[in-house]
């Protein structure tokens, strides 16, 4: 296991990466970081605006730099965006600098958790369920490739998921 002082959360939108990451950081006494929030902070605009002006490709270029910077820090819990694993550079940075946890969520759960948000450009479609299925078909193998551990989140409370991850990390040892 690639256990460093960093924990990186990957998984689809709606899996709970931000909420679980915040709680896990609290439980571990680490700093919490969110790559999407950092990207918005650096650019001064929200993600939908970046997608509108630069497209997904422009967003992904920016995301690579943010993940490079944030993953190089020490003693952090980092929640990544759902598509962060698409870039080989991101997978390499995450895998080599900490423990990667795949927060697994069904498409049904993702739909429930994302249905009220308008901050998800990839879901601005007539068929969000179809889009989520397509994204999972593309991304699930990449989440699994980079992950040291896989933790299911469907129907579970944030504290419960964070406690399971903490326990798994403790069991793994240094």
Give the SSE layout.
Blueprint: E1 7-10, H1 17-28, E2 31-34, H2 35-43, H3 47-71, E3 76-79, H4 88-97, E4 99-104, H5 107-114, H6 128-146, E5 149-152, H7 158-172
Parallel strand pairs: 1-3, 1-4, 2-3, 4-5
Helix pairs in contact: 1-7, 2-3, 3-4, 5-6
Give an overview of the whole structure.
Helix 2 packs across helix 3 (about 45-70) and helix 3 (about 45-70) packs parallel to helix 4 (about 90-95). The termini are close together. The chain is about 55% helix and about 15% strand. The protein has helices at about 15-30, 35-45, 45-70, 90-95, 105-115, 130-145, 160-170, and strands at about 5-10, 30-35, 75-80, 100-105, 150. The protein has a single domain (about 5-170), classed as P-loop containing nucleotide triphosphate hydrolases (Rossmann fold, 3-Layer(aba) Sandwich). The protein has a five-stranded parallel beta sheet, with helices on both faces. With about 170 residues, the protein is α/β, with parallel strands linked by helices.
Helix content: 55-70%
From N to C, what is the helix and strand string?
Answer: EHEHHEHEHHEH
Shape: globular
Structural class: alpha/beta
Q: What is the CA–CA distance across the termini? A: 9 Å
Spatial ordering of strands, largest sheet: 2-3-1-4-5
For the sheet with most strands, the description reads: 5 strands, parallel
What do we call the CATH topology?
Rossmann fold
Annotated CATH homologous superfamily: P-loop containing nucleotide triphosphate hydrolases
Number of helices: 7
Spatial extent as radius of gyration:
15 Å
List the domain count as a whole number.
1
CATH class: Alpha Beta
Uncertain spans: none
The second-level CATH architecture is: 3-Layer(aba) Sandwich
